[in-house]
Amino acid sequence: MTERLPWDHERLAVRRGRRSGVTTMVAIHSTALGPAAGGCRMRQYPSLDEAERDVLRLSAAMSAKCAVAGLAIGGAKSVIVLEPGQRLTPAERRAVLLDHAELIESLDGAYLAGPDVGTGPEDMLVLREGTRHVFCLPESAGGIGSSSGPTADGVLAALRAAVTAVFGSADLARRRVVVAGFGAVGRTLALGLAEAGADVIVSDVDPRAREDARWLGYGWAEPGEALAHPADVVVPAAVGGVLAADTPLAAPLVVGPANNQLVSDDVADALAARGVTWVPDYVASAGGVVYTVAREVEGLDHSAAAARVAGIGDVVSRLLSDSAEHGTTPLAEAAALTRRRISGVRPTAG
Ligand code: PHE
């Protein structure tokens, strides 16, 4: 079950927090293009091994995400490893974050943390007490706040480009779209899709989401059946590992923000052979980091940063036309682009 990962990372830092006793990890996959950015994920893991696997895979995906998006930023990720069933009181949460900030600070700016599944701008503010290397502070503290709006905008740009390639028109009116995952990004996406006239069906493992969905006028699919639901587009918007070679799918197009959607890379070939267009997750989900870097590193204003996010649509159009032309998969094209960008950098002398 635990396939070994190729070790091509620069660094894995693991530390048990002195205040909290909770283990946290930072994986720096690559700083070839610049300091390595990546979200800080806080969730329960069945074991430390699982957490390590997750942080290694997610950090490699961040390298590819940043490279394909054209950022001068490397790839990293961090995890705060809660035990099964473990819930934190506010004081414990603060202690864990201060411990994690200490680990981040020890890396001297090689890792730049942002929010991810299980963390948000308020948590970034606590990290900031121990290290400067944090993105997405609340707006009241001078940051851009949550990155989930820009992430959703990037997915919409990717989805429109892919819909154009697959169906011949960017028009979303009456297209049936299943959004599998009704969290921060999934909710924003569902709203954008509904505004564009799509027939939106949502799904989530949390049964409370069902009431919200009904109230907002969306259809509902049971979480186990969401990906197979009859639709034009399926949008994985929760956690990864949801697509295997034989996963039942009714839609001809899959594009969404969940990181590491495929159980392994060869699933991309299997999906293509089944006539399903799969847009690589690390391409579709880049909006958050693209917007954040544009605002907080480059100092661009909102509209200039939003234009960068919209550019994800052009990247997707290009990948899909290249893969059609070369008889490859969009993943193979994205991986080739990643390799060209990462190996294209030469250390500058002096
Ligand atoms: N969580 C974001 C992702 O998975 C990463 C991110 C990093 C967002 C830094 C904002 C800033 O892409």
Characterize the structure shown.
- This protein is of the alpha/beta class and 350 residues long.
- The protein has 2 domains: 2-62 and 74-141, Leucine Dehydrogenase, chain A, domain 1 (Rossmann fold, 3-Layer(aba) Sandwich), CATH 3.40.50.10860; 148-285 and 315-340, NAD(P)-binding Rossmann-like Domain (Rossmann fold, 3-Layer(aba) Sandwich), CATH 3.40.50.
- Helix content is 42%, strand content 16%.
- The chain has helices at 48-68, 90-106, 121-128, 148-167, 184-195, 208-216, 267-273, 281-284, 287-297, 302-310, 312-326, 330-344; strands at residues 11-16, 23-30, 36-44, 74-82, 111-115, 176-180, 199-203, 219-220, 233-236, 253-254, 277-278.
- The strands form 2 sheets. It has a 6-stranded parallel β-sheet, with helices on both faces. It has a 5-stranded mixed β-sheet with strand order 1-2-4-3-5, with helices on both faces.
- The chain is globular and about 55 Å long.
- The chain starts with 10 loop residues before the first strand and ends in a 6-residue tail after the last helix.
- The mean pLDDT is 95.
- The structure holds phenylalanine (PHE).
Give keywords.
alpha/beta; Rossmann fold; 2 domains; 6-stranded parallel beta sheet; 5-stranded mixed beta sheet; 12 helices; binds phenylalanine
